[in-house]
């Protein structure tokens, strides 16, 4: 009775993670406690986003953040909520947020064994027009008991133990991987619980959608230009791909994960490292893509093998269906 199971045997995200963590004998529930605080932050932002228009949260907060972007009220609010939730979990030692210039080092009495990098509100240019936005996070473990430093988060993405995003769209969906596949949970507002709705998401090996900001085409390098040309005017008689670009990474990546295809934020003459930030955009989405059977490439190497030197470092990124990313890798290899 699948329907009954949904009603009487709820697979909430907390229960799901407890199951996952029970596979690790040494697990003492710390990760589950950390995740429950991330989930709290997502529920808060979901409710704030849904009320934004009414609660006059829309519009500029007047400050600018480290990225030099006009901070919108929801950016600031979301950042405060996540920092407070993560610190109060007592399970973190270092936090990196897009909205804070410096890393946050948790006071000794509240320190825990995890370091969290996050983008509290992704796609903020879309807040005022009601287009889907999201939160992105990645989790490292602290592997020492000395004073935490930024070295504890300036690690390659292949050392992340978990990553996920929450998309605030027509429904609120949290997509998570703890290294054993990718699983989607939908918020049931009547319960205030994220329920497992998309177990073990696998991205199609090939898709027919490409997702890029064509407005930057005049600044692209050769391989990206050639690849996009191929999507629009295929030489082998195959149908042209569709272009879908929301402008919120969470929405574009979520669609790519479920439908297949490729998402590109290439380098261009104006921004040689592209626009997306390594720690809290590129790494978590690359982690998820690989866990779902896809891949993620920077134009030079596997995205998760990047070793960031600065906490807000950027990188070009090509991620999505395995075969589609293979094609762009081949074009960059030719250029080598
Ligand atoms: P954020 O709102 O967290 O700063 O991120 C915005 C990013 C990402 O969401 C999206 O993929 C990209 O900006 C879109 O950039 P363009 O508008 O240059 O295409
Ligand atoms: Mn921003
Ligand atoms: Mn972002
Ligand atoms: Mn952001």
UniProtKB/TrEMBL annotation:
EC class (word): hydrolase
Principal subcellular localization: cytoplasm
GO BP terms: fructose 1,6-bisphosphate metabolic process; fructose 6-phosphate metabolic process; fructose metabolic process; gluconeogenesis; photosynthesis; sucrose biosynthetic process
Localisation per UniProt entry: Cytoplasm
Key words of the record: Carbohydrate metabolism, Cytoplasm, Hydrolase, Magnesium, Metal-binding
Cellular-component GO terms for this entry: cytosol
EC number: 3.1.3.11
GO molecular function: fructose 1,6-bisphosphate 1-phosphatase activity; metal ion binding
Pfam family, one: FBPase_C
Hydrolase is among the record's keywords: yes
Domain Fructose-1-6-bisphosphatase class I N-terminal: from-to ranges: 11-199
Chemical reaction(s) catalysed: beta-D-fructose 1,6-bisphosphate + H2O = beta-D-fructose 6-phosphate + phosphate
Cofactor: Mg(2+)
Domain Fructose-1-6-bisphosphatase class 1 C-terminal: 203-332
Similarity section: Belongs to the FBPase class 1 family.
HAMAP family according to UniProt: FBPase_class1
Protein name: Fructose-1,6-bisphosphatase, cytosolic
Protein's organism: Arabidopsis suecica
